[in-house]
Amino acid sequence: MESVKSIDSNIYRTINKLSANYSPEEKEKLCDQIVTDLYTKAETIAAQSILSKEEHKSEWGERIDDILTSKWLGYPIMLLLLGGIFWLTIIGANYPSAMLAEGLFWLEEQLTTFFLWANAPQWLHGILVLGIYRTMAWVVSVMLPPMAIFFPLFTLLEDLGYLPRVAFNLDSLFKRAGAHGKQSLTMSMGFGCNAAGVIAARIIDSPREKMIAILTNNFVPCNGRFPTLIILATIFMGNVVSSPYHSIVAATVVVGIVLVGIITTLLVSWGLSKTFLKGIPSSFTLELPPYRKPQIGRIIVRSFLDRTLFVLGRAVIVAAPAGVLVWVLANTSINDISLITHLANILNPFAILIGLDGVILLAFILGLPANEIIIPIIVMSYLSVGAMLEPESTEALRTILLNNGWTWITALATMLFSLLHFPCGTTLLTIKKETASTKWAVFAFLLTTTIAIVVNFIVVQLIRLF
Amino acid sequence: MLLTQLLTGKKARVVRLTARSQKRRRLLDLGLIPDTVVKSIRRSPAGDPTAYLIRGTTLGLRSEETNLVEIKELS
Fold first, then answer.
1. Number of CB pairs < 8 Å for A and B?
2. What single-letter DSSP state applies at residue A333?
3. Using alpha carbons only, how large is chain A's radius of gyration in Å?
4. Which residues of B touch A32 (CB under 8 A)?
């Protein structure tokens, strides 16, 4: 209105005076007429300038939609697709992961030889090779292969146009939770990166439902956490059955964890809309665009450059200083006990209650800048305290964890805590930016951490009881 | 008859909108203006939302919205 006023306050006043003579119904009619005229004009222009082919392509799209959104098959197909992607990631990532690890740790040996030859001081070799290089080598060898498989597959689903169908299928659940159907789209973004998912909440118009989407996005595991989930599921859950079914069981477990995340999202959304963010659900409109033929080349390039390298780059950048910190903590002693052991010992009694141990909880705290480095920190901590192991593959990782008292309960508790605990630093900063308040970022931190501790405590105590 | 009651596969003509203010604007912006022909395409597995073909675009709408649209079914 201000801008209108500034154009000509006289005209504005006249309009205002005139409009007072008309009833709301008449004003509504005028409003309708304006929109109708706009549409008529736009359609006339479109009809003159756009030449559309026969609409035969939409027919098979319709038939696919009949299946993908059908009453009985809609939900199972969603789960199968998700499970299929995890399964392919798990079976595909094994060999390249082992090969990468072998190569990178061969390079570490050469670096050590070089440092010895150069007569470098031991602390320098420790910080640079055992701290920075080894942590980064872990991050790359453990994370790169699953990401390089998972991201292109997920991008393929996006490119096909499947994700709006997911939102269409799930909307009624979100409506019942007092949330917006588009929240399933921001959740899909969260699978990539929670910070991106928080930014994506801009597509939700209503401020209340937008806030719900922002605060709950963290319950979708991002790809910084997927490798952790996939690796732990592979090591501890897949191994309980005979080998041909390893990867299927592991994939099922990961799907189960994702489902727990989705159920938590719905429950927390419902709780928020009944308490802190009261209100009724607003409108939902979602376009279901026609299916497109995926552009394979572009998918590979985009998912590799925009996602895989971006995430890996971030992990490596954060891993380097974290590697230094862990190495220093592990090699600085008070009373002949390293600082890392002191810290882990302090955290241990509490950590045990929620199924973790002091080292794992410490790794989650040190991993605040980026969740990608949690497994590497755990391994670094165990290795620096116990015997030096030369990790070569997931099998070596399994040995390290088993030697440090891990069981399937530890793995389950770590996966649950990883799913539910506080968002990473980047996501917290993004929440602060998007909500324009530190208060909501702090709230998100407390909300998620409380839920993580409560859920972990209940699950672990129940398992120990039976 | 309300748009919500339109059976899958049937077509109808929009008669008028009973929505007010913001909601009315949103429905109009989607192209749901009087005399527009709308086709109900499919329901989601849980029965709501429903997808409609409106001016060449497929849109998913919740029953809260479609309850605000009066239509006349076309045979």
1. 91
2. E
3. 27
4. 17, 28, 33-34
- pLDDT for position A241: 62
Backbone angles phi, psi at A236, to 5 degrees: -100, -30
- Are the beta carbons of A61 and A165 closer than 8 angstroms? no
Q: Which of A69, A175, A289 sits opposite B62 (nearest CB)?
A: A175
Instruction: Tell me, rounded to whole angstroms, the distance of Cα A217 from its chain centroid.
Output: 8
- Residues of chain A with Cβ-Cβ distance to B46 below 8 Å are 169, 171-173
Task: Find the radius of gyration of the CA atoms of chain B.
Answer: 11
Domain borders along chain A are 2-52, 74-465
pLDDT tens across A355-364, in order?
999 999 999 9
In this structure, what token pair is assigned to residue A232? 């732990």
pLDDT tens digits for A292-314?
A: 888 888 888 887 777 777 777 87
**A450 in reach of chain B (CB within 8 A):** no
Interface predicted TM-score of the whole assembly (ipTM), two decimals: 0.91
Domain, as residue range, for B59:
3-74
- CB within 8 Å: B44 and A28: no
CATH of the domain at B69: 2.30.30.90
